[in-house]
Design a protein that fits this description.
This protein is α+β, with helices and mostly antiparallel strands. It is 16% helix and 33% strand. It comes from Haliea salexigens.
Length: 144
């Protein structure tokens, strides 16, 4: 597991880059400063590998932001400017090679399309479909 904290200055987002690994389970989640989960059924505060969209260069780019930047892998802070992030790599034997280590950097919101290879924005309809799919998975998970 990799963890850290973030603080978002006005007009900036946190861009997290990670690579597919040999882990059986790979996920990214943001929480508040006390590690309480943010809204995940009706929002996008976590992504598993299967929920994440790969960029043209074969990396996952997740965008931590209060406002929807339009990118598929948006991690919504629910309006919080500070919080924590957790990257889980379950089922990995040994260490990850350095080429698969995640990295994060602050970027200006307006520069985001230039920072992600092949950036494509979601339409409002596509974001709505993404959220409906998340709710469906959560309902199935908790109905057992």
């Amino acid at each position: 597991m990799v963890s850290g904290h973030f603080e978002l200055p006005e007009g900036q987002v946190l861009l997290i880059e990670s690579r597919p690994t040999r882990a059986k389970y790979q996920a990214l989640q943001i929480t508040d400063l006390w590690f309480a989960s943010l809204e995940y059924a009706n929002g996008t505060s976590s992504y598993t590998r299967s929920q994440s969209v790969l960029a043209d260069d074969g990396a996952y780019y997740h965008v931590v932001a209060a406002a929807d930047p339009g990118y598929p892998n948006w991690l919504s802070t629910g309006g919080l400017r500070r919080g924590t992030l957790l990257l889980r790599y379950d089922g990995v034997e040994g260490d990850l090679p350095e080429s698969q280590w995640p990295n994060a950097r602050l970027v200006a919101s307006e520069d985001l399309p230039d920072e992600i290879p092949g950036f494509h924005a979601l339409t409002a309809e596509q974001r709505g479909a993404q959220l409906r799919e998340r709710r469906k998975h959560i309902q199935r998970r908790f109905s057992r």
